[in-house]
Fold this protein.
Amino acid sequence: MISLELCRRVLGRALATGADYAELFAEHTADHAIHMISSRVDSINDAITSGAAVRVYKGLRSVMATTVDKSEAGLLRCAAQAADALGQGDAPMNIVLRERCFGNVHPAKIVPSSVQNAEKVAILKDGYFAAKEYAPCISQVSGTLKDCDRNILIANSEGLYTQDRQISTRLSLNAIAEKDGQTQTGVFSPGRRMGLEMFETIDPKAVGIRAAKQAVTMVNAGYCPAGVMPVAIENGFGGVIFHEACGHSLEATSVAYGRSQFGDKLGQQIANPKVTAIDDGTIPGAWGSINIDDEGHPSQRNVLIENGILKSFMIDKFNARRMGMAPTGSGRRQSYAFTPTSRMTNTYIAPGTDRNEDIIGSIEYGLYAKEMGGGSVNPVTGEFNFAVDEGYIIRNGVICEPVRGASLVGNGRQILMDIDMVGTDLDMGQGVCGSSSGSVPTNVGQPLIRVASITVGGR
Amino acid sequence: MNFQTFKEAVIARCGALGIADYELYYQAAEATSVGFFQQEINQFSSHAEGGVCLRCIVDGKMGYASTEELSEPEALRLVDTAADNAAALETAEPEFLGEGGQRYEDFTPTLHPLPSTETLITAGLATQKAIYAADPAVIDGSSTQALCEKSITAIYNSRGLDLSYVNHIAGLVAVAVVSDGAEMANAAEIKLGDFAAIDREALAAKAAAQAKAKLGGEVPETGLYPIVFGPEAMADLLQTFSGIFSAEAARKGLSKLAGAEGTAIAADIVTIVDDPFHPDSPCPQPFDAEGSPTRRKFVVEKGILNTLLYDLKNAHLAGKTTTGNAAKGSYKSPVGIRPFTMTIAPGDLPPEEILAKAQGGIYIDSLTGLHAGADSVSGDFSLQSAGYLIQNGKKANHVKNFTVAGNFFDMLKSITAVGSDTQVPKPLGTTAFGAPTVLVEKLSVAGK
């Protein structure tokens, strides 16, 4: 993308005003999306994101400049802008760049950009019509097949020069069921850090059927009752509870600035001893995986909580300075236009020892949250919320009628202690996580868990 | 290569491929933002970004492609890709491009002078100092951001459209973090507009006061309550459900307002206005994303749905004229439909009298998780809330960590009072949403 020699000169210019670290990040990303609605291919969109960012650090100050002009003059101008914003300083340091290759843990077999629209449309239609034809009450279906081919280059004043190609694919189906003027939506959106070979293991039809089934179940459901009760949260996207209730509060973005309720709790018991939680960006082919982060640091497996004890934060390069700790391969950015910060990859509660039937059987009256929606958290207070997309009432240890419109709210500190049963069947769900460095693909995951007591929003 | 040269290369390629109908949508921005932490600059960024989106009609279908790389080979690739994308579409409706020579409202937006980097830094540091000074409960962790952006948006098409406008945005974001020793709370306040005129002390004081008000508090009893939504919470609800007014959503079965024009969809005290020229709009626009003239309109007037929001295609299909609400999330997005500055018009009751009417109710001043807890297709919502119990006509005990649940379509009909208070609409990208204090007869609360 950009030669080693040009990178060296750009970094040299960036360091000219006394920065103690400089980085060049360049990107060329092709996004492709095919959208269907009303049983027709409705839109196809191609977008090229192409630009570069120069960052410099001086102590605890970080400066970034971006440009879409990746010519030599454009990059040098960008570097000068970053350097000049830092002010006056000493003579630059000498930089020797060495090309490093970290290998590819996630090779794509069928590179999406090499496949014609017609073939992709066929995959989307498989899923689309499976949803549409699932039941007569399915009034509308929309579906999107997205693929992304992201090429990044990172060079820095510590001598790093490396590139990575990140290919991902995601099928999203959204079904609406209608009954007596009431509508309910079902969604399923599996994604992988792979090419179209993703559909060798994931049947598009099954994706459509799962979305439609959820819509039909929910349109026939009554409203969830409100109150405080025990909740069993299913595996897969259920892991959003950990992502919101704790994950964000363990990111350096919050911790380094004294804005996390767990910031001073390293080595302390912050969760029930049943809880071990891990952020692992190295899982082959998983949606949130990366070979290297957007700062050129190899991805790693970070044990965040072990048997309830807080073991580690997720730390990017800049905040590592403020915290006096090492980066953890967690520096991510949506694109060159965002300043990278600490982010999650594939974050999950590790399997425990409780049997699923024991977890459900233990609840006299409560909620079984089979499918979760999105949520959010305020890391300062730990207050979080998330939506239950498909819920059922549990009575006397038995899963009974479905209920709609539920949400769960609580405080991270409390909820982590209240996770008092953890099952064995770990599964992951795919999400797109938003934060100051933009939207990045992340997996959430867990086995079936029990939360002893939580506020269920309903009516 | 600049946009003009790139445009010529695209025109030439369209000509070579026999593509007669095409449009280029170009957006570029230069932005500076400075973040402050513990009275020092923490992060500084300077952005120069921009891109172009081509859409073209091939065999009656609209193909899209966009890029940030303005070069000759990329111009060719862009046209070829958009045409290839068009070929795979199955849409049955006719496609439209805006016509040149239309008349636009005589409107010159006020472009406030953009602050220099030095001014951004001085103002940011002063604001941060003011946050610390505002209250002894303010702790480290508080931060400030100062930002400004100059952007240009241009549309050029084969039907004679050749339009552009420039927008300036500048502002301050004050984030206060407070602690009472037992717990922390935070609040952010944002103010955009004439940078030199921003009252930094007031902004800092408001952020600190709002953060402090969140400390402590109890969880209310589960039950049905009269609910008063404060202006910010009501504006958030309006924004979350604003998609229901899109004619495209209605046509595709994604809004319950299909076929509801001319009928009552809300209580007769509810009037909703969409105004592209609102004085507090973060981005006043004389034309929409299709180059159609924009105008102020009553979307809901005294409870009656006056009009949905239309673009060219959906207006044609409904036998109407466009309301000038075609919009793009970013230059690369397909054309969709969105309001500009949408507000619920103030009513005649002062907020104090609304509180007096809501005896035994809950005043909600903040809603969280709207992207997850609300479904605009069904109208159902169940949202994390905070506010106050209402006792003796006044805000009493602080309450938090509960949810309010209901259905937006039902709720519009059960609004029993609309406040006379007006607020600066909350900016969200190029749009903004505003509301006065509103009383809803009853909604479900899940607490303890």
